[in-house]
Amino acid sequence: MSNCWPEPIVRVQHLSESGIQIIPDRYVKKLSDRPGFEPAPENEVHIPVIDMLDLYSDDVAARQKTVGMIDSACREWGFFQVVNHGVSHELMVRTREAWVEFFKLPLEEKQKYGNLPSTYEGYGSRIGVEKGKSLDWNDYFFLHCFPLELRDQTKWPSLPVSCRELVGQYSKELVKLCGKLMKIFSINLGLKENYLQEAFGGEDNMGACMRANYYPKCPQPDLTLGLSPHSDPGGITLIFPDDNVSGLQVRHDDNWVTVKPIPNAFIVNLGDQLQVLSNAKYKSVEHRVTVNSMKERVSLAFFYNPRGDMLIKPAVGEEESPLYQAMTFDEYRLYVRMKGPCGKSQVESLKLISK
Ligand code: OGA
Ligand code: NI
């Protein structure tokens, strides 16, 4: 893959802070793609909320009920929130604050981490390398946490000073939480408890990365998006949204619904690799982000993925035909890295033509 961006990179935060009232054409979406409104409380919905405490209850019925609720949430929504998830709220808040601090640093400091399309690691302002393509109203920082051989802390921000330590702890905790969810998903799909985790490379050897998203204030939020519709390419995504500003929208029954975040919860969403492994019993769900004229928004998206060289294919017995072709995650990920957010077109493209 080419190792430079097709055009000079413009930091959206810089555009926003310059005080422009009209956004550049590159950020204006075509009519059918525009959100049409600013997120308003009356458009917010509650996606399923799962209390994970019941998973550890002595009461078998309570445990089974929760496992069943997770299964319905996976089948009907592909998106849910978890509370009592075991990750320290203090750690969550401190990690987010560290990223807020990072984005507040002077531009020159952040530019030291400017990213390239070969790995995406670092400070970025676009996804995809197609020249002339419409851009999203967002800057981000992307980094690898696991497997350890991909973790290079010199590529993580050295400022604020707490950032590397916090991201290390945060990723350790979130990997544990994803491991628990993967076991429950495996059981719910009628697979061995460790099946999905093994398919991803095993407990200590799967992939995990993180994207801190910064959505600056936008003078014309009805014309653009913070992140265009996409499904996440990997396995599980844990989003720690901004408590103060909503913006994440999920496609549900052909409508875009705005998620109402619960304080201290994680939003869980299923990625394309779980759609493939489950042979479409679970589906990755399209989502997008709208922006706001009043407040900037900072969200942390943590991606639990197969290790890059794992060949991912439907987990089916002889009685069921596989719907998707096998592909390694490295190969799969190249597509979104080239094209940028593209709805669900990529996972659809893996569909085998039935004979
Ligand atoms: C993502 C994503 C949602 C958000 O980074 O893939 O969908 O709320 N983020 O920022
Ligand atoms: Ni996403």
TrEMBL record:
The reactions it catalyses are:
jasmonate + 2-oxoglutarate + O2 = (1R,2R)-12-hydroxyjasmonate + succinate + CO2
Q: Name one GO biological process term.
A: regulation of jasmonic acid mediated signaling pathway
Q: Where is the Fe2OG dioxygenase domain?
A: 206-306
UniProt KW keywords: Dioxygenase, Iron, Jasmonic acid signaling pathway, Metal-binding, Oxidoreductase, Plant defense
Q: Which PANTHER family match?
A: OXOGLUTARATE/IRON-DEPENDENT DIOXYGENASE
Which family does the record claim for this protein? Answer: Belongs to the iron/ascorbate-dependent oxidoreductase family.
The entry's protein name is Fe2OG dioxygenase domain-containing protein
This protein's species is Penstemon smallii
